[in-house]
Predict the 3D structure of the following.
Amino acid sequence: MNFIMRIIVTSIVAFGISYILSGVRIDSFWSAIILAVVLAILNAIVKPILIFFTLPLTLVTLGLFLFVINALIILLADSLIEGFHVDGFWWALLFSFLLSIVTAVLFKEDKKEKERD
């Protein structure tokens, strides 16, 4: 159930951010749901592989290269999903940054509520 809630929240946040950023377009809410599922799969499978192969660069940049890896994941999702379009690397970087910040804040509040119960 928690996975489904994360997918729904991520899709709502991504759909909202696409309205704010002119370089990112999501055609419909169903495309946003598909985007959230694809991002979850890519983050589970592709991202650890990319982190492993770029570990020296990530260490030299003190972890800042992880933002580049997130942008590459967004660009990969752009090529896989028909209703999701990103105009370039910098838009993907900004989109991934905003998406991760907003979802982290929302899921942090969710964890606080669970601790109170």
Observations:
- The first helix runs from residue 2 to 20.
- The longest strand covers residues 24-26.
- The mean pLDDT is 92.
